[in-house]
Amino acid sequence: MHRFLLALTLVAMPLLGHASEEPEYEVIRTFDNVELRHYSPYVVAEVVLDASAEDAGSQAFPILAGYIFGKNKGEKKFAMTAPVTQTAATMAPIRMDMTAPVTQAVVAGGMQVQFVLPKGVTLETAPEPIDPRVQLRLVPAGTWAVIRYSGTWSQTNYLEHLGELKAALQAAGVDTQGEPVLARYNAPFTPWFLRRNEIWLAVR
User: How many structural domains comprise the chain?
Assistant: First the structure.
């Protein structure tokens, strides 16, 4: 247990600093507290879980951290990047019942959590995960509307700023599509008032 907590701390520590690598993007417009960003393509390791929005991050973290710590074919290790993103899943989630086979039928819904892999990693060069719950995905280039805020990761704080983002976009005449994405840039032990949190909505 102590080894796991130490590993969790070590993988989370880079998220405290502002030097953590992020996907490349260009700010193409700003208004109110919103940025429109055009992101270059990047590769993620992701897991889809049958979990609530409040629990998905803590359940997904050790699974995805295992992959970047070397639980992959080739035992390659990656530096932690930012952000860790979370959104409502668009595919069937994996049950967190470790006694059931992975192939067991699953319910609809759930949450998708992603770790961004470092720049230069492609689907061809990324090592294959050993854990079948971990999948690799190329996130294509795209434009996102983003609002940044500090504070806790509570649903109340999230929904307040999601409403602010949607209102600003409606006033600006910007159309979006898909589910909102919560992006977290800091470790859990970062004081709430120092955290960088963001909500992303894909621009249509």
Answer: 1
